[in-house]
Design brief:
By secondary structure, the chain is mainly alpha-helical. It contains twelve helices and no strands. α3 crosses α8, α5 runs parallel beside α7 and α8 crosses α9.
Length: about 290
């Protein structure tokens, strides 16, 4: 069951990236993140009331509350970095760096969750690392282009680091919490953080200038994110984090496919080889 949920999470996550990219062509990424989070929060709490888990809030331990809040903060940081990188860089390159977070997640799972690191996982991590390097080949570009590349690259790295921390913190936080309720609580923290960033950076006034088309894409990406989260954290609750995270990262295949048709982003031979390495490394991890 958890494996099917993990694959469902990957599909929705891949769709999320494309919809979000369409929604931040002209819209500020921080504002878009706050708007998306609002939609995710609404859908998350709707699911809570559908399954009737709202009555379990008083049963949540202090430890779970702490880790759910920390994972929400980490998620917020990851999102802010990710969509800033997505706004400035190519989808295929940003997503490849973000998905490399699986390497750090597996290492953290070994250190903090005592999950076994098998030979297959080690081979998979090496292949994903090589694939990420290939997909981010450096070309001869101008100084201005290099500065832009450096900006989105650093944001993408930040996204990957915070995403890794999110998985570990959430795994601990939802140990004794119904997954839908845990997702809603985490999303509430992300929402507060996202809108706080909007006000702190003085971008509140930009909300009125967002066109209807981009607003629609932002809302759709929020719905896709909500579906992805519900699948992901239910899978994470009942399955091993070191296996679920690699499956979730297969969303890169969905993203690359859609980016080809929507944004006309084509992979070079080296980047295609990198994608094959990342996919192969992910699939090898599932053997364990």
């Amino acid at each position: 069951m958890w494996m099917l949920l993990a694959f469902g999470s990957a599909i929705f996550a891949g769709i999320t990236t494309i919809l979000a990219k369409c929604g931040i062509q002209k819209t500020d990424s921080t504002v878009a993140t706050a708007m998306r989070t609002t939609i995710v929060l609404i859908s998350s709490w709707i699911m809570v009331f559908i399954v009737g888990s709202q009555f379990q809030m008083n049963l949540i331990s202090k430890k779970s509350w702490i880790f759910l809040i920390l994972s929400g903060i980490s998620t917020g940081a990851s999102w802010l970095c990710y969509f800033k990188a997505l706004q400035k860089g190519d989808v295929n390159k940003v997503i490849s760096i973000d998905k490399s977070s699986v390497i750090l997640t597996i290492l953290l799972s070994f250190i903090f969750l005592n999950e076994e690191v098998t030979i297959f996982k080690m081979i998979g991590m090496i292949l994903i690392g090589i694939g990420t390097y290939f997909m981010n080949e450096k070309k001869n570009i101008s100084t201005r282009q290099e500065n832009i590349r450096r900006q989105w690259f650093l944001y993408a790295i930040g996204s990957a680091i915070f995403a890794s921390l999110t998985s570990i913190l959430a795994k601990v936080g939802i140990h004794d919490v119904e997954s839908t309720l845990g997702t809603a609580i985490r999303t509430s923290v992300v929402l507060i953080m996202a809108w706080l960033m909007v006000f702190l950076t003085g971008k509140k006034g930009l909300i009125k200038s967002i066109n209807k088309k981009e607003s629609l894409f932002i809302m759709m990406s929020g719905l896709a994110t909500g579906a992805s989260w519900i699948c992901y954290y239910k899978a994470l609750q009942i399955g091993p984090a070191s296996v679920i995270v690699p499956i979730d990262k297969l969303s890169i295949l969905v993203t690359v496919l859609f980016s080809y048709f929507v944004f006309k982003e084509r992979l070079s031979k080296k980047s295609l080889l990198g994608l094959i390495f990342i996919t192969g490394g992910t699939l090898i991890m599932l053997i364990s």
